[in-house]
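User: Can you model how magnesium ion sits in this protein?
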Amino acid sequence: MNKNNISIIILAAGKGSRMKSQTAKVLHKISGKPMLYHIIKASKEISDDITVVIAHQKEEVQKQIEAFFENINFCIQDADNFPGTGGAMKNVTPKNEKVLVLNGDMPLITADSLRGFLDSDADIIMSIFDLKNPNGYGRVIIKENQVQKIVEQKDATENELKVTTVNAGIYAFSKKVIEKYIPLLSDNNAQKEYYLTDVISMAKKDGLNISPLLVDEGYFKGVNSKKDLSDSEIIMQNRIKTSLMDAGVTMQLPQTIYIEEGVTFEGESIIENGCRITGNTLITNSHIKSGTVIEDSIIKNSDIGPLAHVRPASHIEDTHIGNFVEVKKSSLKGVKAGHLSYIGDAQIDEGTNIGAGVITCNYDGIKKYKTIIGKNVFVGSDSQLVAPLQIEDDVMIAAGTTLTSGAVQKGSLAISRAKLRNIKGFYYKFFGGK
Ligand code: UD1
Ligand code: MG
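Assistant: Here's the modeled complex, given as structure tokens:
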């Protein structure tokens, strides 16, 4: 497809008051990324000329989007004087003859689902779908197979409210339609807003060719409330997990697993029920057991969990991580850490065993420090490794040791224990008996 003959305008300036949130609506996340991110990602596959209209929290919206994408145009809506989706179009000057206008609250769209808007030469293509419960959407009034107008819910008569054909909120306009009708919009309606949807009735009166395109709610659902957000999240999660399973990832009870956009898998892995995998995590040929959380990390040829927590910037390879082990910003290669440990800001080498209850004390209340552990080290259970610390190869740390020395040389035993006292008969003296 030639990306250069269509302009895309994304309306993202609204407050989203129905979300009842301090966060701008388009920045609410679906599968770990702002709603607007998903829309721009799909748009980029179709066009090189993308404009996002902003106003409410405009600096924050622009900042978050620029962290992901380059070459996006931002256009500021004069929302005080021209509120509404039509007001959002007032300052827009599209480059190309064909213009696709998308609402910024439709995170489920894909480039494929937009193809139908690109193939026709009608002056206006508008998207419609039929819903059992059309609540919240603009109703599409059709007579004799011709779209007459769109009526917003708040302006609809009782009969119009019964209409179940709704406006999905995506339109393809010719540039001349935008140039002619946007300046003619008025705010003479229940919400005192400039409705983009009024373009339809004006164009119809002038005899323009309006072509309705039936679309699938699974791709065109609008998000106006927290309930809509969670409904859309379920659809997006199904999509992400289906494509991972198609690529060979085994998932036990996939409906209990959450995997963010941006997580990638290589080879063949198994994910058990109740896992949460986020950020830019990469998992290769690994087994992730029940209830494990993995954030922004690399896992290769390893088994993790059940109930383990791998926090950002960890690199785990050829390693076994067992239950109740937390790893943060650490690199482990060929390591066994089977039970109840905290491993933070550490680097641990091949053949090393981390006993149950071992803690890297990486934080002194002000700064974080590193723990470096060499090859074939045996760290006995319940040891505290007070960083900064370097343990060379072939070292044994006795169980219960608090290691504060900064360095342990190759081949040594490190042991710190109070002398054991064994007081005969004390129990019976204290509790009575025998
Ligand atoms: C809109 C349509 C409705 C359609 C529905 C589909 C209008 C008037 N109504 O209603 O017919 O069924 O989408 O989801 O267009 N926005 C701005 N500036 C504003 C107001 C909104 O940029 O002043 C942006 C919002 O950020 C949002 C999008 O436009 O991304 C749609 O606004 P929203 O308030 O969600 O419109 P709906 O009531 O859903
Ligand atoms: Mg909406």
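A couple of observations from the model: Residues 103, 105, 222, 224 surround magnesium ion (ligand 2) (CB under 6 Å). The chain has a mean pLDDT of 96.
User: Helpful, thanks.
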